[in-house]
Amino acid sequence: MENQSINQMEQRKGRRLLLFPLPLQGHINPTIQLGNILHSKGFSITIITTNFNSPNPSNYPHFDFHFINENLSEDEKSQPNIVALVQLINSRCAQPFRDCLAELLSNVLEEPILCLISDVGCYFTRAVADELKLTRMVLRTSGATAFFSFSALHLLCEKGYLPIQDSQLEKPVAEFAPLRVKDLPLIDSCAPEELYELVDDMVNATKASSGLIWNTFEELEQPALATMGQDFGIPNFPIGPFHKRFPASLSSLLSQDQSCISWLDKQKFRSVVYVSFGSIAAVNETEFLEIAWGLANSKQPFLWVVRAGSTSKSDWLETMPKGFLEALGERGHIVKWAPQQEVLSHPAVGAFWTHNGWNSTLESICEGVPMICMPFFTDQRVNARYVAEVWGVGVQLEKREREVIERTIKGIMMEKEGEKLRGRVLDIKEKATRCLCQGGSSYQSLDSLVSHILSFQS
Ligand code: UDX
């Protein structure tokens, strides 16, 4: 056993990679999964991470962790403007990241680093890697279609679609069919100029990198991947879905409430609506009540994740109508955070009411679960439109009102339309499974990625 691990260490020698995640749940999960994927291909993995939102290193004894201080105040960390947060992370992490990296590179005789792989959102790593003469690749954790439309915000501005006017929300965006103006990847809480600046920084740093790794697969997003490959002029590696190679549960920043699974065990086959809006999105008090009553009136069993911070009240129980929970009895189960991948693969789950973050969207597709789409911002809007109109594996919730919610849930759970959606999602699930098998598109792309990285050795 000991000899075996010494052998493995010898084989990995000279094949060290450095990964840096954007410290947000939806970005940490795929970065850690990528680390595991590349480790399984014989690379040694070093992770530099901020102290803020750090994954637990004891879950990854096979990785080497280094921590930097991100220099953010508590108020800055919890601010709702996600664009401002990403910009702050970029400005405050540059120096500590540089110092940490310089120190690691000074140990070059011990083990050279082949390349840095950083999240597209961490565009500051471009200047640091250039200065320290380290090859840099990037990981895009969202879908290719969303990133493609995101990277075209300037063009959309020139064409007059942006800034968005309320009277134009339903207008089709001819250059990005089937998107409508309201599906464009914007964020209401942020000034358009602030977003354009962020997009420019991300796109420029990506184009200047030595390659782009995607958590997606050809069969799902071939047109966008092809266009991005041409436009960006750098090697493209769609090797997803990552979570089917390595689950995300260990990199969860919040503790996952396992009571979900025993509750699901008691429910009928495909009877439950699973409701979760990811790690950032929040609803106001009125929307919260509409969701609660919509779920109750649908008469379907439901598992609802109400994360701390996902409503305006610090304790969501305060927002619940009096007597609501008692009236529901065993039909509804509410938790603060769920083991989402396990939940989606449970036979009792019949639909996923989601915000369409990319991880949630992929996880739902890979478990063959049709979606009710309620996007909040940026890529979620594009993903939702594609889920409903292109891949045909979900429906958009048109209004956040109890009657509409009730009708949409009944439609997906009990009517013919729901069966059609399920048929299509099972079809794509099959493709997602096949692309990872020997000879499949992601399997081959991973082989190309490994060769590409090894070519940095000389
Ligand atoms: C963020 C952005 O909001 C999203 O638009 C972007 O695509 C990725 O970054 P987030 O909102 O957290 O992500 O959503 P998502 O991408 O779906 O990631 C959430 C992750 O948390 C998933 O891997 C999911 O399995 C996990 N999760 C979610 C849990 O483990 N438990 C839960 O209760 C909810």
TrEMBL record:
UniProt-listed Pfam families: UDPGT (PF00201)
UniProt family annotation: Belongs to the UDP-glycosyltransferase family.
Entry protein name: Uncharacterized protein
Gene Ontology MF annotations: quercetin 3-O-glucosyltransferase activity; quercetin 7-O-glucosyltransferase activity
Source taxon at top rank: Eukaryota
Annotated keywords: Glycosyltransferase, Transferase
